[in-house]
Amino acid sequence: MFRNLVICGYLTVLLFCLTNVEAGLFGIRMKYDSNDIPYVEFDGRRYVCDREELVKYTNDAGCEVGIYLRRPTAEEQSMREGSVSGSVLCPPRR
Fold first, then answer.
1. Which helix (H) or strand (E) holds 68?
2. Which strands make up the sheet holding 53-58, listed edge to edge?
3. 18/12 Cα distance (integer angstroms)
4. Residue-wise over 55-78: b if at least 16 C-beta within 10 A, else e?
5. Which of 31, 39, 55, 82 could form a disulfide with 72 if both were Cys (CB 3.0 to 4.6 A apart)?
6. Are the C-beta atoms of 51 and 80 separated by less than 8 Å?
7. pLDDT tens string for the chain (94 positions)?
8. Which positions carry the signal peptide feature in this UniProt record (predicted)?
């Protein structure tokens, strides 16, 4: 009986999240400064791409933003290319 309640609870939470939360994925193209340091700009902020790191914050709209920073590959660096990915999860609008 308890197991059925737990499964029902998980399904209820999943259904609630799927119907009331807005989410999205996006990509950000890398730029390079005059010293060939790779970086990305998002939401008025600048992030250097010198290591693998997950940057998380809540924006002004109350959305949880995650940007997955990484170093460019040697080929991307030589061609001054590359991109990083990100995600956004927003609470329901009222």
1. strand 64-69
2. 22-29, 83-90, 64-69, 53-58
3. 10
4. eeeeeeeebebebebbebeeebbe
5. 82
6. no
7. 445 544 545 555 555 555 567 889 999 999 999 999 999 999 999 999 999 999 999 999 899 999 999 999 999 999 999 999 999 999 877 6
8. 1-23
